[in-house]
Amino acid sequence: MYQQDIRLRARPRGFHIITDEVLQALPQLREFKMGICQVFIQHTSASLTINENADPTVRKDFEMYFNKAVPENDPDYLHDDEGSDDMPAHLKAAMLGSSVMIPIRNGRLALGTWQGIYLCEHRNHGGSRGIVITAWGTI
User: Fold this and answer.
1) Closest to 47 (Cα-Cα) out of 95, 109, 114, 106
2) Per-residue pLDDT tens over the stretch 88-135
3) What distance in Å separates the CA atoms of residue 118 and residue 17, rounded to the nearest whole number?
4) CA distances from 119 to 37, 74, 112, 130 (A)
5) Residues 39-68, buried b or exposed e (16+ Cβ, 10 A)?
6) Which InterPro entries does the record cross-reference, listed alphabetically (predicted)?
7) In the structure, what pLDDT confidence band is assigned to residue 81 with cuts at 50, 70 and 90?
8) Where are the domains of the chain?
């Protein structure tokens, strides 16, 4: 079993592919014949998901959809201590989740041809983000 903490640089609000950063942080992945890799974000206003890694318009459409589904400045929100994007960010993160699990096969993440790991930054100025990557299985 291997575990690595990494700090992702601050990114603007939106959906960002971080697959390469995850792979660079855990070179021991190549040792596994079969296993599981969990990628976990240590924040409540950003999330992780797996989706299209080739066409950047998919990530723009994700941002558009979530902004429509969870609008800012809703007068019913009670939690707005850190600004109008605060509570919507928590809701979006809850909808998408704080971790992804990916099979490991022959030293590689068994992602599909067009799949990548997304950092979903839901804050206008979220800052750097902490990620914990854990891999376990047969070596």
Assistant:
1) 95
2) 999 999 999 999 999 999 999 999 999 999 999 999 999 999 999 999
3) 4
4) 16, 25, 18, 11
5) bbbebebbbbbbebbeeeeebeebbeebee
6) UPF0047_YjbQ-like, YjbQ-like_sf
7) confident
8) 2-71+81-138
The closest of 47, 45, 5, 10 to 22, measured between CA atoms, is 5
Architecture of the 2-71+81-138 domain: Sandwich (2.60)
Pairing state of beta strands 99-105 and 2-8?
A: unpaired
For residue 22, what are the CA distances in angstroms to 17, 40, 44, 61, 104?
10, 11, 20, 24, 13
Helix (H) or strand (E) holding 90, with range, is helix 86-96
- Would the pTM of this model clear 0.90, i.e. be above it? yes
What's the Cα-to-Cα distance from 86 to each of 59, 61, 126, rounded to whole Å?
21, 21, 10
Residue type present at position 36: I
